Amino acid sequence: MSETIRPGQEPVSTTDEFLKGLWKQNPVFVQVLGMCPVLAVTNTARNALAMGLATLFVLVCSSTAVSLIRKIVPKQVRIVTFILVIATFVTVVDYVIQAISLELHKALGAFIALIVVNCVILGRAEAYASKNPPLRAAADAAGMGAGFTFALLCLGVVREVIGKGALFDVPVFGPSYQEWVVMILPSGGFFTLAAWLLLFNALRQRRARRAAADAAEEVAA
Questions:
Q1: Domain range holding 24?
Q2: What global pTM score does this model have?
């Protein structure tokens, strides 16, 4: 993989750029961004996957486009230009979902259009794609999009399995299962998100303690 070395920084491969979005800088579990769709459309795994893939597509396409035009866009209008680029790809996604499934399009509702103002997408365009070459920008966007999709699936799977006793509309526990309707309601989104954030923070702290212990052992040796 190609690398770009900046003053005072270690070289980072495009693979590392992709992987950071999955764990170290996960947009939901670490940066806590894009909470509106995370809480609103994760009542089923299907809706969560659809929204995640739509966001991934817009992220990769818009970041690549922003990176390609970064040197010719005046600084005074860069934010407006970025929003126009993002809105173009959101419109494409909107029509594609509508053509594939009207039921899914209705379930996602206004949250498809609201991808335009998703802070994850605009943030990556402004903070990263506008300052890096296309390949690196695309890798960063793909990692962030994959991390966002993973987070939505984590919530959607838990809420659907517990709330409906099914996964992707396929029964899991049989007809005798007592559904927890609260998990499908908005309050269930908050409960599930809080549980996942607690788990991820615990894992990160455990990993940090291990790294500190290993470093202390190396110093002592």
A1: 3-220
A2: 0.88
